[in-house]
C-alpha cells in the first residue's frame, strides 16, 4: 500500500491532499481519488488512489538517482538482518555490506519455485474508500526470512522502504514473527510483491518490490521495500502509531455507493450501484435504506439499526473467475484447481460490486444509506466502529425526487 503519513490526511476540494513538509518537519501525505469499480473487477495500476509519503516522492527522482537508490529492478536489493538495537541472532544475514543482499533477479528465481498470487483490495484506515483492487504476485516473506537463518530472540519483523536517506521521512511497519512464518489454514501469506495485475509493479505503485499484508490496512503494505529487520522488540512500533492509529486492526467490512443520482424523476425505479470491501469477518449482505429527509431519527439509534433496510444484490462471481484476470496470469491461490471459481464468495480482503433499484418514490427530499452485514450477522459500522482502526461509518447520499 501507499506509505501513509502518521497524520490523517484532510481531503481538499477535488479529492487531493497536497504533498510537502509540515511544521513538524514530516512529509505530508498525498491522496488522490481512486477510480475503483469503474474499470471492472481489477483496478489498472494507473487508476489507483494514493496515500503517499516522501519529499520528493521516491518514484519522481531522476532515473540516475532512482538507480543509485535501488528503486529500479536492476539495482534493487533487500536486506534481511538482525536488528542492531536488539539481541536477535541471525546466522546468514542478507546484507549489502556482506554482498549477500537479495536482488531482483534472485527474487524472480524464488518466485518460479515459491510464487503466490492473490486478489486484495487496499484501503487506508483513515479514508472511507478503497484505493484499488488487484491481483498481487510475489514470494512469501517467510521464504526469504529463512534464507537469513534466524536463530534466537526474534519476536517481530520490522521493515521499511526507501525514504530519501532522511530519518524524518522513515516510515516503518512491523508484524509479529508468527504472522510472517505461518498463517492459519485458508489465510494468505505476507508477500514480497513484484507484480500487480500481471505487470511489474510501477514506481508509483511501490515498485520494484513492496510488502503486501493481506488482512491489513495499507500502512502495513509498505512501498519501495528495502530493509527487513528481525527484532526482539516486544510490541509494534510502526510509524503509524504517531497518529493514534490502531496498529493491529484488520480490514473491516463496509459498503459504499458507486453510482447514485443526485436527483431523479418521481414514479420511476431508480438504479443505484456500489462497492463493498470484504473484511476479516466476511460479507453476507449489502443493504440500502431510503429515509425522508426532515423526518426525525431516534437519538438512541446512532447506527440506524432500526432503519427500514432492504437487501441489495451482491454481484456474483463470473462463471470463470479467471476471465477477469489479465491474460496469461495464474489465478488466485484460493481458486480450486479443478474448477474455475471460488468455493467462497465474496473472497476475503477483496472489493465486490452490488446493485439495487429504488422503488418508485414520491416527490421530495430523501437520504439514501447503505451498509454491509458480515458473516457473523453484524451490521456496519459494528462490531468495530472506532475510526482509528479503519473507517466504516454508514454513508449517506442526498436524493431529490422531482415531478
Descriptive account of the structure:
This protein is mainly β. The protein has two domains: 20-243, Alpha-Beta Complex (Sulfite Oxidase, Chain A, domain 2); 254-402, Sandwich (Immunoglobulin-like), CATH 2.60.40. The chain is 7% helix and 31% strand. The strands form seven sheets. It has a five-stranded mixed beta sheet with strand order 7-5-16-11-12. Strands 8, 9, 13, 14 and 15 form a five-stranded antiparallel beta sheet that branches. Strands 18-25-24-20-21 form a five-stranded mixed beta sheet, with no helix packed on it. A hairpin with a 5-residue loop joins strand 1 and strand 2 (27-28). It is elongated, with a radius of gyration of 22 Å. The termini are far apart.
Detail the topology: elements first, then pairings:
Blueprint: E1 20-21, E2 27-28, E3 30-32, E4 50-52, H1 63-68, E5 77-82, E6 89-90, E7 102-103, H2 104-114, E8 116-122, E9 132-140, H3 141-147, E10 150-152, E11 156-161, E12 172-176, H4 177-181, E13 191-196, E14 199-200, E15 210-212, E16 225-231, E17 254-259, E18 263-265, E19 270-277, E20 285-292, E21 310-311, E22 313-314, E23 351-358, E24 364-373, E25 395-402
Amino acid at each position: 500500500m501507499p506509505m501513509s503519513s502518521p497524520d490523517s490526511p484532510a481531503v481538499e476540494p477535488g479529492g487531493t491532499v497536497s504533498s510537502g513538509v509540515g511544521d513538524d518537519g514530516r512529509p505530508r501525505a498525498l491522496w488522490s481519488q481512486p477510480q475503483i469499480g469503474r474499470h471492472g473487477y481489477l483496478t489498472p495500476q494507473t487508476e489507483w488512489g494514493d496515500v503517499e509519503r516522501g519529499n520528493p516522492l521516491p518514484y519522481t527522482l531522476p532515473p540516475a538517482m532512482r538507480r543509485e537508490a535501488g528503486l529500479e529492478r536492476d539495482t534493487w536489493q533487500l536486506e534481511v538482518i538482525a536488528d542492531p538495537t536488539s539481541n536477535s541472532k541471525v546466522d546468514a544475514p542478507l546484507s549489502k555490506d556482506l554482498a549477500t543482499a537479495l536482488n531482483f533477479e534472485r527474487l524472480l528465481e524464488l518466485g518460479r519455485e515459491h510464487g503466490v498470487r492473490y486478489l486484495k483490495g487496499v484501503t487506508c484506515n483513515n479514508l472511507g474508500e478503497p484505493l484499488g483492487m488487484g491481483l498481487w504476485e510475489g514470494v512469501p516473506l517467510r521464504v526469504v526470512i529463512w534464507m537469513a537463518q534466524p536463530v534466537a530472540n526474534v519476536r517481530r519483523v520490522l521493515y521499511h522502504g526507501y525514504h530519501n536517506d532522511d530519518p524524518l521521512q522513515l516510515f516503518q511497519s512491523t508484524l509479529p514473527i508468527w504472522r510472517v512464518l505461518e498463517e492459519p489454514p485458508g489465510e494468505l501469506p505476507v508477500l514480497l510483491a513484484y507484480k500487480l495485475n500481471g505487470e511489474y509493479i510501477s514506481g508509483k505503485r511501490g515498485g520494484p518490490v513492496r510488502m503486501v499484508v493481506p488482512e491489513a490496512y495499507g500502512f502495513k503494505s509498505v512501498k519501495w521495500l528495502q530493509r527487513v529487520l528481525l527484532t526482539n522488540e516486544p510490541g509494534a512500533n510502526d510509524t503509524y502509531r504517531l497518529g493514534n492509529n490502531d496498529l493491529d486492526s484488520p480490514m473491516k467490512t463496509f459498503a459504499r455507493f458507486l453510482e447514485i443520482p443526485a436527483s431523479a424523476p418521481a414514479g420511476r425505479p431508480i438504479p443505484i450501484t456500489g462497492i463493498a470491501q470484504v473484511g476479516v469477518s466476511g460479507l453476507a449482505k449489502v443493504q440500502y435504506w431510503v429515509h425522508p429527509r426532515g423526518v426525525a431519527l431516534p437519538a438512541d439509534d446512532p447506527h440506524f439499526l432500526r432503519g427500514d433496510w432492504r437487501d441489495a444484490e451482491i454481484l456474483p462471481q463470473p462463471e470463470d473467475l479467471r476471465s477477469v484476470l489479465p491474460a496469461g496470469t495464474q489465478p488466485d491461490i484460493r481458486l480450486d484447481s479443478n474448477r474455475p471459481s471460488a468455493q467462497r464468495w465474496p473472497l476475503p480482503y477483496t472489493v465486490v460490486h452490488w446493485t439495487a433499484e429504488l422503488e418508485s418514490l414520491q416527490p421530495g427530499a430523501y437520504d439514501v444509506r447503505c451498509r454491509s452485514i458480515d458473516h457473523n450477522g453484524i451490521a456496519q459500522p459494528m462490531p468495530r466502529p472506532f475510526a482509528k482502526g479503519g473507517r466504516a461509518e454508514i454513508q449517506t447520499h442526498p436524493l431529490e425526487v422531482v415531478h
